[in-house]
């Protein structure tokens, strides 16, 4: 018997799209699995495991390859490079696949794709790797700590350089370690629709595993489900998928009965919905975003949760809107960022982001803040947040904002639990770090407008 | 070990019922080794003896977790169902949709004529059924639902969606 499609060939296609066409791994993997729906569970599992694993360990895999290849990884033909990468992943991380199978399949694929002349190269590198994998000398933790972290956790050195300048070595290692673990799905109970107990009961009735989460009592972790859309409590709008770090935004914003809120970059709308919940039908939340697509995304969410005090609006945050001036009691500026805090969920962010791109993002963040600050009433609150880690987009922006606009930092201690309180939260900002905190990496600052 | 020539559909040897193996002779051991090598070389996940022109009840299967050799296999239990594409080394480059049991239990002899039981799900169950059918002269093409596709066409259709 034969199988009509070769799973390894499919994986190569996925890696090609991610590494050569700059697409995101979670999107490419999902699309590919949808395309090959007729594949068996086992093949589907193999495809996602190898594709995800290869991407998560890319720097380490390239390091290993360079021990055994006379050609530098960056100088290889893209097809051969990705073929070798996915093969090394299987050699190192998948005991269930025999080494000989890995080498044979790789050689056959190289041949099939017309790389006859490179057949011996592929075979040589992989057989050598298989034989000497245990003898690879990895960078030393004491002598070259940055290189050690980079190769062990496949984290680019420029990111580590910035983090090591800001945090101690152990903290950085903890962040890297935690990002390798699978991040659970976190949900926010929509307490205006149902009580936490009712929600847990409904989830458990569908055999979904539910766990409590630190920091907020209405946040839960769920696992053992297939599709979100098949969960009754989700269909009824009883909960929203949202990381606990992102829930802290509305918590720290602390909306009061009747407040007018503007969320300038709102899609997909989790934080706006949360504010709207807290307002319990009073006040108003204007959830803005740039494109029709994003606004439509939010409207779907609104439809499902049946709001009366919230609207999704198309409005570019970098374009000044005169009608909004001094209108907002609360303004959320959860801005586009490098996303280094959510690498646990999207592993390839780290390879796509560069220092130059990060500097561009800082410019956009400042441009937006410069455009929207005046929408806040005097005495009103502005919450600045990002899902990233590092001073450039967080602490430095806070300082820049304070230096240039009539705002001061405002303590967030009244709104957060004891565990999260620190000197910086007392001052008015919080950098959440995966592993140090039980959440994604996230940054929140609370400002009050004084003039 | 050697690679043997695979018989292609139309060859009458693929339509005959195979005979039980009474004893594993050195020649049969050699046949089994050759069948494995041929299957691996051709990227198959299973091969039955009639496919290399030998009318004996022997099949080899490897879906990726190591080889199984089944002599005189008898499927004792079929449960559930799965519908999916399969192909055959005796009809290269083609595949079609076939419904097979999700779970099977097969009793067979190993190369030392010791009896054993193998249970398989999904792909393994499919491969066991496909190969055992060969021993009774049945090709999967008689079970295909709808058309028989060219594999290239199958890839392309998917790409156009």
How far is the N terminus from the C terminus of chain A?
Answer: 77 Å
CATH architecture type of chain B: Alpha-Beta Complex
Quaternary: heterodimer
* N-to-C order of helices and strands of chain B: HEEEEEEEHEH
Tell me, what is the CATH class of chain B? Alpha Beta
Low-confidence stretches of chain B are 157-161
**What is the percent of helical residues of chain A?**
40-55%
CATH architecture of the largest domain in chain A: 3-Layer(aba) Sandwich
Number of helices of chain A: 19
Account of the protein in words:
The complex is a heterodimer of chains A (451) and B (161). With 451 residues, chain A is an alpha/beta fold. Helix content of chain A is 47%, strand content 14%. Chain A has helices spanning 7-20, 25-35, 41-56, 58-68, 78-93, 99-112, 119-132, 145-153, 157-166, 169-180, 196-205, 232-235, 244-253, 270-278, 292-305, 349-352, 355-372, 395-404, 423-427; strands spanning 185-189, 209-212, 219-223, 239-241, 260-263, 284-289, 310-314, 328-334, 376-386, 407-409, 429-432, 442-449. In chain A, strands 5, 6, 7, 8, 9, 10, 11 and 12 form an 8-stranded mixed beta sheet that branches. A 4-stranded antiparallel beta sheet of chain A has the order 2-3-1-4, covered by helices on one side. In chain A, helix 3 (41-56) packs across helix 5 and helix 5 runs parallel beside helix 7 (119-132). The longest helix of chain A is centred in the last third of the chain and has 18 residues, at 355-372. By secondary structure, chain B is an alpha+beta fold. Chain B has a single domain, classed as Peptide Deformylase (Alpha-Beta Complex). In chain B, the strands form 2 sheets. In chain B, strands 1-2-3-6-7 form a 5-stranded antiparallel beta sheet, with helices on both faces. In chain B, a hairpin with a 6-residue loop joins strand 2 (58-61) and strand 3. Chain B is globular. Classes of the chains: A alpha/beta (451), B alpha+beta (161). Chain A: Its EC number is 2.1.1.176. Chain A: GO terms for molecular function: methyltransferase activity.
